Input
Amino acid sequence: QVQLVESGGGLVQAGGSLRLSCAASGRTFSMYARSWFRQAPGKERDFLATISSSGGSTDYADSVKGRFTISRDNAKNTVYLQMNSLKPEDTAVYYCAAPASLRWPPVQYDYWGQGTQVTVSS
Output
């Protein structure tokens, strides 16, 4: 059973920064890609960023490219999302996700965390 637990959310002013963490347990963490998504109230869940098992490859949604950075520490079984230059429209619940497949890039996500709230005030 894979468990993903996000942390690091909170309230921040526009232009500020936050770093989200997602700790994983229950599987060989370093073998699988990891991704971040977010869901704003009344909207669909959107892809933000993904990172390969080694950390050598990443991909980002256009909406966060240049502002958000995904990284991972396989020794700590943790993936991070550094968020800079935050905007009010970044307000959402942020989720980390993992695939059951080793395929890169991932096309299906089988494991999700419970989410962490990020609120950006103007």
